Amino acid sequence: MMMQMLAGGGVPLLVDDERVANVDNPHGYYEYGPVKRIKEDTSWLYLARGKAVKVVSPLLRYLPPVHHYSVVFMQRDLAEVMASQRAMLHRRGETTSDDAAATMVAFEHHLAEVHQWLAAQPNIGVRYVNYRAAVDQPGEVVRLLDGLLPDGLSLAAMANAIDP
């Protein structure tokens, strides 16, 4: 959703469109494949200068410290995330035998580590955006991003890009 908002506001994106929109993600995935290999290869980062790139939280620590980054960290209720994942797996005919409580604890621990790591990085500016607040109050949420993102963006267009 945030990548859709950024695009709506005028931020250029670095995406490859390899994963097409589907029932689980009807607006698309907004991903760039080389991000998945950032631990081994950061040669593509020059392509990202001035653009938004989707990076999942476990990969943030592999961003080279020689660059400055602006991170918009989407936060969503973990119970919602897990329900969404279960529904997606069910639609695909897949099942999971994961212990939901253990998965929740592990993910909470991971998020705490990522937040701590981000706070210690002098080259990373971070804004935390609550997913539910973005859906329910998009105008207020996009104002939180003002100052982190480039000047000249349309905050109203960013807010209008949200599809509740």
Specify the helix fraction band.
25-40%
User: What value does the average pLDDT take?
Assistant: 90
Poorly predicted runs are: none
Head-to-tail CA distance between termini: 10 Å
Please outline the major beta sheet: 2 strands, parallel
Tally of contiguous helical segments: 6
The chain-level structural class is mainly alpha
The fraction of residues in strands falls at: 5-15%
In order across it, which strands form the biggest sheet?
1-2
Radius of gyration: 16 Å
* SSE pattern, N- to C-terminal: HEHHEHHH
Q: Report the principal-axis shape.
A: globular
Number of strands: 2
How would you describe this structure to a colleague?
By secondary structure, the protein is mainly alpha-helical. The chain has six helices and two strands. It has a two-stranded parallel sheet. The radius of gyration is 16 Å and the shape is globular. The mean pLDDT is 90.
List the defining traits of the structure above.
164 residues, 38% helix, two-stranded parallel sheet, mainly alpha
